[in-house]
Amino acid sequence: MKTEKPVEATKTTEPLAAEPGIEERAFSLLDWMSTRGIFIFTGLLILTAAVFIDGFASLTNITDVFNRAAAIGIVAVGMTFVVISANYLDLSVVAQVATSAVVLIAISNEHGFLLAFALAIVIALAYGIVNGVAVGIFKANAVIVTLATTFIGLGLLRWFSGGSIYFGPPDGPIRAFGSTRLGPIPLSMIVLVVMTLLLSFVLTRTNFGFMVKSYGSNREATRLAGVNTSMVVIGAFIITALAAMVGGFVLAAFSNTAVSSMSDGFDFRALAAIIVGGTSVFGGRGSVLRTLLGVVFVSVLTNIMVLSGLGFGYQQMAIGLLIVVAVSVDALARKAAPR
Amino acid sequence: MTQTETPGSDSKGLDLGSGATDLMGRLRAIAGRRTEGRALALFVIVVVGTLIFEPRALTSYQVTLGRIALVGLVALGLTAVILMGELDLGVASTLAVAGVITASFDNLAVGIIAALVAGLLIGVVNAFFVIVVGINSFIATLGMLFFLRGAAFVLSNEQPVRIADPDAGIAFGRPLLGPLTPRILLFILTFIALHIFVTRVRAGREFYAVGGNREAARDAGIPVVRRVFTGFMISGFVSALAGVINTLERTAADPTAGSTVLLASFAAAIIGGVLLNGGRGSIFGALLGAATLGMLQVSLTLSGVQVDVQNIVIGSVLLLAVISDPATVRLVFGKARTFFTERSKPQPAG
Amino acid sequence: MTDNTMASSVNGDGPAIATAPIVEARNISKAFGGVQAVDDVSLAVPPGEIHAVVGENGAGKSTLMRVLSGIIKPDTGGVFVGGERLDAGDPRAALEAGISLVHQELSLVPEMTVAENILLGSTPSRGGFIRGSEQRRIAAAALEEIGVTVDLDEHISRLSMALRQFVEIARAIARKPQVLILDEPTATLTPAETDYLLDMLQRLAGRGLAILYISHRIPEIFRICDRITVLRDGQHVDTVATADAEPDTVVQMMVGRELEAVLGEHRDAKPGEVIVSAKGIRAPGVNGIDLELRAGQIVGLGGLVGAGRTELVRAILGADPRTAGDVTITLDGKTHSINGYGAAIANGFGYIPEERRTDGLALTMTVSDNIALPNREHLSTGSVLERGKIARFAKQLADTVGLRPPKIEHEAGQFSGGNQQKVVIAKWLGREPTAIVLDEPTRGVDVGAKAEIHRLVRELADDGKAVLVVSSDLPELLELSDIIHVVRDGRITGTLMRDEADEAAVMALASGQTTGAGA
């Protein structure tokens, strides 16, 4: 139904500046905090930790932080695509990471690495396609869809694995990969950096990344520009799933073990990293590189809490709070900005 | 050419397409209004299937009812929020925190009251972020999900906590009225209260307006902000009640309690025809959805199906439910805009 | 300020009013952005009068009515009911004073019943509980008053559009108003339903209700209204008694502006081959339309808001599914069938949608990115974007359309409406479309940008493109089009060549005053 009203409603929200003109947006503290603030916050957090927290600045601790950050970071840079496409998040990364880890160790033990790798890729594609089709074609809510696939996925994994812990051979290539390091930097960290650069390239330099961003900014305008939007959503979920697969490999290689519960908490840590990194849950804005900084922030924060003797419960509270606060800052910045 | 064309018609007898007036037509109209059809069909299938494969689920109805009651309770509260087009992902965590709070006090009565008050406060905080700050409720309550789960661990020192008066807890688990335990009675009471609230009470009825056409609700003078607060407080309170009941029956609070409740309660509401976008659905539908799921779960358990497989089944049911909503299916198959169908019928030229 | 006698002088040379007005608007002005939507307009309506407010799209009718019902706060001036000044911009105060607005857009809740919707926001209750019988009684009384029978317990989502419109009216009546405002109430009604509604309004006025009736449809106005106020470009042109006026003079007052200037702007059109052929198009709101677009020709689609023009172009493009009909486009001698939006874009269509902010632009992305989006294949090697190429490409197109300031790295949302529209056009120009469809290309756009957009449209046609323009802005339609099809109720009711088209002729076809004369 066409009405006259939208015309006027449109007019009121248009810039009041004299014509023709552009509205130079005033510096907004909230806006700055929600996008660029992460640089300062991460720096301050590390500085504070180094000064006040005993044991933080030690080589072993930093290596440990890197190791833990790597798997979550790889998941987070992948999931950034789903968040930018304005589909909130992919909860099923928990199931995806655990499945990939178990497949890597268990199948490698029995049938060799190649088959494990091939199976992991098939599983990742299945996750990406199921989530993507439900969200992109059936327009179902991403949170509910991925909640369902999390339970399906974890259920399948536990059913097949019986919840047992798998150990890789102590002298196998997985163990070798997990223990190799360049100076204080574990190989897993290098994988994280490579994944970040690769996905950052995909987001900022390729057609696909461009469409994801555009879709997150305005679905209908993107569709009317001739973009197959269903494929964009499916693609975003596939990228997330492939990243989660790599994350699972790295996680398994680090300890040379795999168990279905090893990725608990990956969903919200990854989301916290993405949001703190300034990617907007409202879609259309975001950066893979800043997600990496968000990962550093979340990992350092978790490490500080561990060193201070605060357990999993406190960490979960802190990260839940972090998500709500970061999104609030983004929401308030949007309210304040005239657009 | 002024007002010469005075009204000729007697103002009656114009067919405005008000629909059939005969009995069958009316029945069809009433059936069409209901959104519980899918739940009813699934319910019948599950009941028949249970009768054939696992009749024990019906003979040991107390177990079945108990299972339905816990998930159903949370689903009912959740429905109040979903009707307004919002979501509360924190329900299962609220259940866990409330359970721990119940057990944390030396006096059980104080513990129960504190837990219920906490549920209300959680609702207030959720509503604040959603309607005052303006965060999407998916994300706001997701934050609460993590925060509260963490809080449950912190408050309990990551250990199950025994309640102050285990005897009271054991008594609570006993049938009170015929075969009905207090858990089931409370569930039935909550169902009746919420059903009356959204059908007979003005504030509750207006939830449909807030969810169905928020702009119109605001224009009509409905206090949208207050309604959203009410909805989240109902959801928080009912989840906390479920937590209290759970803790009393087990005589201990488990910080990991209710980990599958989130999935099951959403599945129950969505199967029951409650539309995620708001404005459509009923408390009765949520009850049907919960009954269907509960019976399915108990049948599977009694048949020796392990929990992991049950999760696969329920997850699949939720996934199918969320993509098979009539509204969604319509959207996928060609955006049938019933809105305009009246206009596409041929009209005389002129 | 309760000077009732002042009312009769407000309307200047309008006819004297016998009774004191129940509602008055005094010297209302309201601007949106830089556009003066309503400029010092006054109006007074006595009880029992049906008072028409007419004007073209954008003349300020809806804004004035929204001021009267308290939805919009005017910049200057005030609204008086029974001589009492109302609190400006307070819908509840207006409602309590007895002003009820029947919304142009439907503001019902689909999953609530008829009775509930009629009393939405004022549900009778005791101790928080709804008094169901009271609710039904009031709703039934309101429906009785307008003489409409409908099941009180039926959900709105199951009613026809016409019934929904009547429920909206019942809702306004249930508030016991003294003044009823209707904004285009017949836009979605069939002729029979329209008859019914008009009779109903006359009965209501007979009982002393003052009615403000906004419509484009001149025959309806002459049938039921006592006086007519004409607005043009936000200004009050005149208020005349219907008995003293002729439809032609009213239309003249609505559209009367410098027609000569417009005529001078015409291109020398040389229509070529048929590029686009659409046959038997049916879709929701479109009831079987054939249309041809020729190379080098600008085809205009005229008609009232809600006539089905947007639905038609979207059905042709496949942006919304059509229920029947075939569309072909001829490119370099080859004819392609268009079965979906993707095929339309791939085969040389360009589409500038009606709603720029929701459908046209990604506002949080840069101008450069917005322009690059439909052209991404040409701006990348493999699937890697070439940033430098994009910047040059966007810069060149921004210059072509005259983006000001030409800062392509700024977010689209930061630009004014006119410049945003230029960006939407630029992104399609980059594809060099064979056929381009523009829906309301200058809505909400300032005068300067409007002229530039018109120049661009003409250049497209001069380049041999097939151009389709939908516009509710009559001078624009006349200025641009080589041929005008007028759409009403989802059909083409008349076709006018450029030399036979004028505002009155288009308006007459669009409003149903004449039918099929030029077809």
Quick structural overview:
Chain B is mainly α and 350 residues long. In chain B, 70% of the residues lie in helices and 1% in strands.
Spell out the blueprint of helices and strands.
The complex is a heterotrimer of chains A (339), B (350) and C (519).
Chain A: H1 5-13, H2 29-35, H3 37-52, H4 59-84, H5 93-111, H6 113-136, H7 142-161, E1 166-167, H8 173-179, E2 181-182, E3 185-186, H9 187-205, H10 207-217, H11 219-224, H12 229-255, E4 257-258, H13 266-276, H14 288-307, H15 312-336
Helix pairs in contact in A: 2-15, 3-14, 4-9, 4-10, 4-12, 4-13, 4-14, 5-6, 5-7, 5-12, 6-7, 6-12, 8-12, 9-10, 10-12, 13-14, 13-15, 14-15
Chain B: H1 23-33, H2 37-53, H3 56-59, H4 61-83, H5 91-104, H6 108-133, H7 137-156, E1 161-162, H8 166-172, H9 182-200, H10 202-212, H11 214-219, H12 224-250, E2 252-253, H13 261-271, H14 283-302, H15 307-323, H16 326-332, H17 341-344
Antiparallel strand pairs in B: 1-2
Helix pairs in contact in B: 2-14, 4-9, 4-10, 4-12, 4-13, 4-14, 5-6, 5-7, 5-12, 6-7, 6-12, 8-12, 9-10, 10-12, 13-14, 13-15
Chain C: H1 6-10, E1 23-32, E2 35-45, E3 50-54, H2 61-68, E4 76-81, E5 84-85, H3 91-96, E6 99-102, H4 114-118, E7 125-126, E8 129-130, H5 132-146, H6 161-173, E9 179-183, H7 191-206, E10 210-214, H8 218-224, E11 227-232, E12 235-241, H9 247-255, H10 259-263, E13 274-283, E14 286-294, E15 298-303, H11 309-317, E16 324-331, E17 334-337, H12 341-346, E18 349-352, H13 356-360, H14 367-372, E19 380-381, E20 384-385, H15 387-401, H16 417-429, E21 435-439, H17 447-462, E22 466-470, H18 474-480, E23 483-488, E24 491-497, H19 503-511
Parallel strand pairs in C: 3-10, 3-11, 6-9, 9-10, 15-22, 15-23, 18-21, 21-22
Antiparallel strand pairs in C: 1-2, 1-4, 4-5, 7-8, 11-12, 13-14, 13-16, 16-17, 19-20, 23-24
List keywords for this structure.
heterotrimer; A: 339 residues; mainly alpha; two-stranded antiparallel sheet; globular; disordered N terminus; C: 519 residues; alpha/beta; six-stranded mixed sheet; 19 helices; 24 strands; 26% strand
